[in-house]
TrEMBL record:
<comment type="similarity">
    <text>Belongs to the RNA polymerase subunit omega family.</text>
</comment>
<dbReference type="InterPro" id="IPR003716">
    <property type="entry name" value="DNA-dir_RNA_pol_omega"/>
</dbReference>
<comment type="subunit">
    <text>The RNAP catalytic core consists of 2 alpha, 1 beta, 1 beta' and 1 omega subunit. When a sigma factor is associated with the core the holoenzyme is formed, which can initiate transcription.</text>
</comment>
<dbReference type="Pfam" id="PF01192">
    <property type="entry name" value="RNA_pol_Rpb6"/>
</dbReference>
<dbReference type="InterPro" id="IPR006110">
    <property type="entry name" value="Pol_omega/Rpo6/RPB6"/>
</dbReference>
<dbReference type="GO" id="GO:0000428">
    <property type="term" value="C:DNA-directed RNA polymerase complex"/>
</dbReference>
<dbReference type="GO" id="GO:0003899">
    <property type="term" value="F:DNA-directed RNA polymerase activity"/>
</dbReference>
<keyword id="KW-0804">Transcription</keyword>
<comment type="function">
    <text>Promotes RNA polymerase assembly. Latches the N- and C-terminal regions of the beta' subunit thereby facilitating its interaction with the beta and alpha subunits.</text>
</comment>
<protein>
    <recommendedName>
        <fullName>DNA-directed RNA polymerase subunit omega</fullName>
        <ecNumber>2.7.7.6</ecNumber>
    </recommendedName>
</protein>
<dbReference type="InterPro" id="IPR036161">
    <property type="entry name" value="RPB6/omega-like_sf"/>
</dbReference>
<keyword id="KW-0548">Nucleotidyltransferase</keyword>
<keyword id="KW-0808">Transferase</keyword>
<keyword id="KW-0240">DNA-directed RNA polymerase</keyword>
Amino acid sequence: MLYPSIDSLMTKIDSKYSLVSVAAKRARMMQENAKPQLDKYVSHKNVGKALEEIHADQLHYQLGVQQKKEAYE
């Protein structure tokens, strides 16, 4: 069985697409020697570590705000 489960992760982030995107970005950061956010990890791989951080509420995401471009002539 996988830890953390997909059901528990879906309570933290609203869609599977967003979950994959956030975990992949964090895994890339870890690959480039980013500071760990948890003291101990169950997983040895970076994607698993990123998912554990999401499950522990240490990793969040925010939707970007799109700015309006108005042309004045």
